[in-house]
Amino acid sequence: MKAFFSLMIAALHPFVRCTPSCECPAPEDFLLYDLNFFRFRDPWPFLTSPERLYLKYGPFKLLENIKCIISELIE
Questions:
Q1: Rounded to two decimals, what is the model's pTM?
Q2: Is 26 exposed, middle or buried (CB count within 10 Å of its CB: 0-12, 13-18, 19+)?
Q3: Which residue of 7, 58, 71, 75 shows the fewest CB atoms closer than 10 Å?
């Protein structure tokens, strides 16, 4: 339940207005530093899955250190 509310906060965070007097944490901080999300970081179930990967657009500043992306794994 806590993970659900943490995801909801992260999803709604961009729509909350901040004034210069407040400091709002970035939504990615919830996903990167909250210990409840570590269980979603194990790539092995995804990598061994026959499911197709659909890529989503992301800003270049987040993608500039990525060297390659494999969309399908062939045995």
A1: 0.22
A2: exposed
A3: 75
CA distance 58 to 38: 22
State how far the Cα of 44 lies from the Cα of 42, in Å rounded to an integer.
6
Give residue limits of the domains in the chain.
2-63
- Distance CA(21)–CA(24), nearest Å, equals 10
In the numeric block, the tokens 């499911």 are attached to: 51
Residue 50 is predicted with a pLDDT of: 81
Which of the 8 DSSP states describes residue 29?
H
Structure token digits, residue 62:
């987040």
